[in-house]
From TrEMBL:
This is Sodium voltage-gated channel alpha subunit 7. The chain crosses the membrane at residues 232-254, 364-392, 496-519, 531-552, 572-593, 625-644, 701-719. Keywords: Cell membrane, Disulfide bond, Membrane, Repeat, Transmembrane, Transmembrane helix. GO terms for cellular component: plasma membrane. One of its GO terms (biological process) is sodium ion homeostasis. The gene is SCN7A. It comes from Pan paniscus (Pygmy chimpanzee). It is found in: Cell membrane. It is a multi-pass membrane protein.
Amino acid sequence: MLASPEPKGLVPFTKESFELIKQHIAKTHNEDHEEEDLKPNPDLEVGKELPFIYGNLSQGMVSEPLEDVDPYYYKKKNTFIVLNKNRTIFRFNAASILCTLSPFNCIRRTTIKVLVHPYPFLVLIDCVFMSLTNLPKWRPVLENTLLGIYTFEILVKLFARGVWAGSFSFLGDPWNWLDFSVTVFEVIIRYSPVDFIPMLQTARTLRILKIIPLNQGLKSLVGVLIHCLKKLIGVIILTLFFLSIFSLIGMGLFMGNLKHKCFRWPQENENETLHNRTGNPYYTRETENFYYLEGERYALLCGNRTDAGQCPEGYVCVKAGINPDQGFTNFDSFGWALFALFRLMAQDYPEVLYHQILYASGKVYMIFFVVVSFLFSFYMASLFLGILAMAYEEEKQRVGERSKKIEPKFQQTGKELQEGNETDEAKTIQIEMKKRSPISTDTSLDVLEDATLRHKEELEKSKKICPLYWYKFAKTFLIWNCSPCWLKLKEFVHRIIMAPFTDLFLIICIILNVCFLTLEHYPMSKQTNTLLNIGNLVFIGIFTAEMIFKIIAMHPYGYFQVGWNIFDSMIVFHGLIELCLANVAGMALLRLFRMLRIFKLGKYWPTFQILMWSLSNSWVALKDLILLLFTFIFFSAAFGMKLFGKNYEEFVCHIDKDCQLPRWHMHDFFHSFLNVFRILCGEWVETLWDCMEVAGQSWCIPFYLMVILIGNLLGLGGLRKLIITVEEEAGMSFFTLQQQGEVQSEGGVSPL
């Protein structure tokens, strides 16, 4: 029976180990599958840092093939790993099939050493270069250089991973497919004489997404979001079904109604020729004979029902001209009706559409909009959140199962540590007995005593952050034990400042200070300004006295060991600096920092501490999501600028009567970034109308749908993750606050 090979620590990947692994895989295929329940270890995934439990990484093992430490891949997949200086895991297929070189080939080893050292700065340079509108003269040189580097990277990956030989080959990674496609498109577009469509010319902006596979947190987060998207397929189909139904209902109710306008019927001797309202032939197709309200761009809508909008005297309601909003708001076809219903579902500028329909069709149709608003805005949003919650709950359960598997290992480690501590205590007792026994001459006890004392000294030194002379200075000058009279004063002050009634008095002062801050307004009378200034002086004096008394009671050394005391001292120093610079011009900005006094309540309010602790840790946990959202916004802005920038410049007269770029456009990166950010905030329909006027519907609608759907998916996923993280951190915060109770009591904190 062939023994099952087990990797112990970091072992170089040699030909002997390669043959042993192949024999074991062949043996398991021929016999019963006794290891089918074996699964990959999440801590040993590609891109993660190798845990230190597997041993130290020597210099000779960096960028060299090592035996796979994950039993799943070691026993079943015939792979090996390579670590860089940061202990990041890279996994490769060892099989030499389908244009894959041997793991011991010098060319493959060299390319692997190049591959395990990524270069994100090149992607960042390319991103900055793509955001420029006025490109420099040396643009072709930089573009060719970057293209050469990316082509070289693809060749390195092909030699290092192989073309197609397992899940860790070049074509086994979808990000490599994207990188290869973008590079091929760029080569074809740059060196082909054919003039390609703008979509292919903007394919280079997809290279911004290379940031994602370079960061393991972003890559895993994208995987989670794709998993959530799969869960949302049913919801999306259901949403489209309901949208289609209500679109057909809207077509039956409102088809052609939005073209009803108040038209001035020409008199007998009046020229019946219709003239443009402006001299610009592109700006509008409306006529002077329509009735316009003052300041309105489009003609007044009307209806033939009694509860619809009525025309003023001398005008009749006729169906003529174009639909409102540059002709893009109507129910004349299924596509435009679906667009209007999607706009209602997204609640973007819905009140204008309500008014347009009520003016043109009648007030009774308000029932239609009430039903649509309640169904889509509340029911469908709840359904989306429910599906996302299910996906994240599954992720949470997976983490819980994983922790259950790891818990016995930690218990065993804890028992070993406890036994070690008991052994240390026994050794310490033996040392003490030796000290009390003058006759003892045992040499082993001497050695044990020296080793124990040396271990304690090293442990104490490792806990010290600052150099030793700083501690000597602090204990000499910052611990005040001068005389018996001073010690009596210190004890008296300690009793006063640490009393619960003192804390209650300080809490009342903080609340009153917050009330005084809320009384500020503009303009203020002289009496109110004087009252607020006097109150500010009083509160600064109280907080200063609190700091001084606590320093006396605790020594400066003990006072500044507590974080809340440091925060209190910063507030006091800020107040004193503000008083000294009160008459200096331009120093009014210091008044803003008075708001920090509100956070002094956290010292006496445990729930407030828990909330702040949870929020701070949650933002740290969401750093990958924030980075992914920023990457998506940056990519969308660059993509929109490349795709629509020239159209805004050439056809600006279609959207502005003075042929000037409007406030919201995508001609340059800055405005494109702002436009994408506005889309994610839920206000997109007005800018979409302008985009369709200058660039057409076929490009603008898919771009806006991409930004809206992916942006909302990231937002909902981030909200759910934030809720889960806050819940977890809140539980941890209770435990942390209990541990810090003694420290806080020593620091003058006694929660009421």
